[in-house]
Amino acid sequence: MTLLRATDLGARHGLLNAVRGVSFDVAEGEILALIGANGAGKTTLLRTLAGAHPLSTGTIVYADEDLAGVAAHDRVRRGIALVPEGRKLFPEMTVEENLLVAGHRARPGRWNLDTILEAFPALRPLRGRLASRLSGGQQQATAIARALMTNPRLLLIDEVSLGLSPKAVEEVYANLAALHDDDATVVLVEQDLNRALSTAGRVICLLEGRIVLDAPTAGLTRDEVVTAYFGFNAARQP
Ligand SMILES: Nc1ncnc2c1ncn2[C@@H]1O[C@H](COP(=O)(O)OP(=O)(O)OP(=O)(O)O)[C@@H](O)[C@H]1O
């Protein structure tokens, strides 16, 4: 079943068209990776889905409802949660407080403080720690956990592994694998191509704001991905 349909999306930063004529579907239960070079428009696109950045063109239909005019906080209530670039935790609140604040906007569902701490056991001993005192990996785990507290149907995660140690990346992806087993629908932005291809069932590559590749990851060669990513066939350059 299609959970989200984006049609002809455009988004601007002033005069710059950061997202241009982008159309794609997200099926319920799928993990979709958004890839592309720096500045390709991934963050802007994710933010338009969450309602954190305005559309200049196009429509987003989610769960059979047009999201035009639906504010970001109302999208959270409808089940769209964003883990933003830079995580944006409340630094002077504890891990637990960061989670509970998000819980105020929660839809009914299986996620609450107890089930979250079961799913993210590494957070349990950190409950009372200020977010500003967490490592990058701990912050990312808290940010994902905070999004889950809203019981999302669609989880949007920006820059999953950026700035994390290899061990922290392993932990964050183990959490994502557990979510997938739980039938969550996830759109993630990932700079690490190998990670993106091994985690997601489908990949969309953006180049200068446009989709240049939208394909299932199974059967996709690294060459095809790299060609889309850079906009030319690197292997064939002199
Ligand atoms: N706040 C802003 N003001 C002006 N231009 C912006 C702003 N944010 C992004 N841009 C520009 O919009 C384009 C798309 O940026 P965006 O952050 O969406 O890309 P991205 O693919 O997520 O890149 P990165 O991987 O570097 O985060 C880039 O050219 C960027 O310079």
UniProtKB/TrEMBL annotation:
ABC transporter domain ranges (all copies): 4-233
Keywords: Amino-acid transport, ATP-binding, Nucleotide-binding, Transport
PROSITE patterns the record matches: ABC_TRANSPORTER_2
Any GO molecular function: ATP binding
Short name of any one Pfam family annotated for the protein: ABC_tran
Gene3D superfamilies xrefs: P-loop containing nucleotide triphosphate hydrolases (3.40.50.300)
Membership in a protein family: Belongs to the ABC transporter superfamily.
PANTHER family: HIGH-AFFINITY BRANCHED-CHAIN AMINO ACID TRANSPORT ATP-BINDING PROTEIN, HIGH-AFFINITY BRANCHED-CHAIN AMINO ACID TRANSPORT ATP-BINDING PROTEIN LIVF
Designated name of the protein: ABC transporter ATP-binding protein
